[in-house]
């Protein structure tokens, strides 16, 4: 019975992760990043993270979803920081 319980839990987690992934695949939020303005990067990051949290909140406690959410937040944060640096200047 224990093996089936573990399989059922994994199946449920995978199904929930799939639903969250699909819902996060669309538009998350409209944000503005002003190159060189750290506060605009910070605000945009907070808005995107809040949008991700809202879409995933129904599945709190699902380790797969929580891991995916952490990774997505880091990716978006890194991208927003990159955009906030503005055009790179070659020397």
Features:
mainly alpha
What does the secondary structure layout of this molecule look like, with pairings?
Elements (H helix, E strand, L loop, with lengths): L1 H23 L13 H19 L6 H23 L6
Question: Describe it for me?
Answer:
- The protein has 91 residues and is an all-alpha fold.
- The protein has one domain (2-85).
- Helix content is 71%, strand content 0%.
- Helix 1 (2-24) packs parallel to helix 3 and helix 2 (38-56) packs antiparallel against helix 3.
- The model has no long low-confidence stretch (mean pLDDT 84).
Question: Nutshell version of this structure?
Answer:
The protein is mostly helical. The chain has one domain (2-85).
Per DSSP E runs of 2 or more residues, the count of β-strands stands at 0
Largest sheet at a glance? none
Q: State the shape.
A: elongated
Element string (H = helix, E = strand): HHH
Rg over alpha carbons: 17 Å
Overall helicity:
over 70%
Quaternary structure annotation: single chain
Number of domains: 1
**Strand residue content:** under 5%
In round numbers, the mean pLDDT is 84
Structural class from helices and strands?
mainly alpha
The total count of helices amounts to: 3
N- to C-terminal separation?
66 Å
Low-confidence parts: none
